[in-house]
Amino acid sequence: MFIGHGVLAFAIVASIAAHRGWTSDRALLVGVVAGLFGTLPDVDMVYALLGLLSGAEGLFAASDAFWNAASVVHRAVTHSLVLGAVAAIGFAAWHGRSDPRLLAVAVLFLGGMVGVVASVGGPVAAVVMSVFLLAGLGIVRAARSVGFSPQVVLGTALLGLLSHPFGDLLTGTPPQFLYPVEVTLLAERVTLHPDPTLHLLGAFFVELATLWLGLVVLARLRGWDLRLRISRRAGLGVGYAGAVFMLPAPTLEVSWPFVFSVLGVGLLGVPLRLRSETAGLWYTVTTALTAVTVAALAYTSAYLVVG
User: Fold this and answer.
1) Alpha-carbon distance 241 to 74, whole Å?
2) Other CB atoms within 10 A of residue 2 CB
3) Which of 151, 168, 185 is the last residue of a domain?
4) Domain check: are 14 and 110 in the same one?
5) Using alpha carbons only, what angle is made at residue 138 by residues 154 and 179, rounded to the nearest 5 degrees?
6) Rounded to the nearest 10 degrees, how much is the dihedral formed by the CA atoms of 63, 43, 284, 170?
7) Does some domain include residue 245?
């Protein structure tokens, strides 16, 4: 769901802006700002890079080291609804820092977050929170540079930061929604199906649906007909059904063979010839997403028959 978080925030905010009469360009821009805020909580994965620097040899060992390092801080401080709301207010106040009162609010809220996290979670959590806030201030700067007001920053930050944790309920350990308060809102992830493979496939289809939603919103704002931006090559994705005989049944614990291979089907979106009408970025993206969707549906159908 790394990409899906941002795409969902983009689709919601861009649609709202268009409904309120904003021009398509401004609606797209504000959607992008929301999408950046929607992705921001996963900046905590920067700590997982230490796992890759641990000297682990081989793909499996490096993968284990990466995720073991990530588990230390992932879905904690940056995924808190409490801290997310405080950060959104702090970001909006920083946007209007020319007003001394707003500057004081920004310093109090953003600085206070680092202090609270340091006292509760220790230095590692404080460093992760600092990276989160610095990245957020970068988004604020970008939003300000294109003329968005503090109110827009507040709204997009709230939607992006507060929607993000709920997208993690299908995979892994649920976020610490109320951090630093020691209250568990949800102890276990949402299960879509008792069969672990069908659960993973269900979560994958949720991600695909989110990406399609974002693409449809983009197409409507741009006036595109998506049907004209899909190559017939995408239908070749149906051949991925054969992977059910070659790959271990994917689960959340062992998902990478399926995920990497099914995403590889998206290479069908790469144009065979650099013709102007088929070489565009969005022609490639739309065809690739269609091919992956067809491949996932074919695999799921085969799994239901064979399994």
Assistant:
1) 34
2) 10
3) 168
4) yes
5) 60
6) 70
7) yes
Do the domain assignments include residue 183?
Answer: no
**Is it the case that residue 69 has pLDDT exceeding 50?**
no
Are 135 and 230 members of one domain?
A: no
Give the dihedral sign, CA 134/140/141/143.
positive
CA dist 291 → 212, 221, 270 (Å): 12, 23, 11
* Segment 117-145 mean pLDDT: 93
| Nearest C-alpha neighbor of 4 from the set 151, 171, 214, 158 | 214
- pLDDT tens readout for residues 221-242: 999 999 888 999 999 999 999 9
Q: DSSP character for 176?
A: -
pLDDT of 47 > 60? The answer is yes
Type of residue at 36 = L
- Domain of 145, in residue numbers: 2-168
Average pLDDT, the chain: 89
Exposed / middle / buried, residue 276 (Cβ in 10 Å: 0-12, 13-18, 19+): exposed
Q: Identify which has the larger pLDDT, 281 or 150.
A: 150
Q: With 0-12 CB in 10 A as exposed, 13-18 as middle and 19+ as buried, what is 113?
A: buried
Nearest to 257 by CA among 305, 306, 219, 200: 200
Domain count for the chain, please give it. 2
**Token couple for 33:** 């700002």
Whether 279 and 227 map to the same domain: the answer is yes
| 214 & 118 share domain | no
- Does residue 243 share a domain with residue 150? no
